[in-house]
Write a structure and sequence with these properties.
Strand 6 and strand 7 form a beta hairpin. Strands 5-2-1-7-6 form a 5-stranded mixed β-sheet. A 3-stranded antiparallel β-sheet has the order 3-4-8. The longest helix is centred in the middle third of the chain and has 12 residues. By secondary structure, the protein is an alpha+beta fold. The chain has 4 helices and 8 strands. The chain has one domain.
């Protein structure tokens, strides 16, 4: 089993992002905060599906959500927005955030080590919704060989 510390170290080494937008629901609303790094307390290592090894996953527990509420998060509206379209919740969240910043969203498959999901003021920003996978051990192995 890969340790959480090791997974975080690899993610931070390979991530092309300068900062992160972290999304979460709280009391039936959808919020986000922008952070320089995703804090380890928000991350878990879990078994990945389809023989991908293990995932580093964003898991924001209820007590941590209440801490984030003290950081003046931006409310995008009702949490029901995440159920509104044909895309998965993470893609819908990425679209909402991109449009919040006045940009046009397009579904993409650009890896996290190439660029962020959005550029804000010339900086690469990765957008992640609670329960998102950041990377897996199979990706780490490929990146180490590159």
């Amino acid at each position: 089993m890969t340790t959480k510390r090791t997974m975080i170290k690899h993610y931070r080494t390979y991530s092309a992002a300068d900062s992160y937008i972290v999304g979460f629901t709280y009391e039936k609303n959808l919020y986000f905060v922008q952070v320089a790094e995703i804090m380890p307390r928000f991350l878990q290592v879990e078994q990945a599906s389809r023989n991908q090894g293990e995932n580093l996953r964003l898991r924001i527990k209820k007590n941590l959500k209440s801490q984030l509420m003290r950081k003046n998060p931006i409310c995008l509206g009702s949490a029901d927005l995440l159920n509104a379209e044909k895309y998965n919740k993470g893609e819908i969240f990425e679209k909402l955030v991109t449009e919040y910043f006045g940009q046009v969203w397009e579904k993409d498959t650009v890896p996290f080590w190439v660029q962020g999901d959005i550029e804000i003021s010339g900086k690469q920003v990765q957008i992640k919704l609670d329960s998102a996978t950041l990377m897996n051990t199979k990706q780490i192995a490929k990146l180490k060989q590159a």
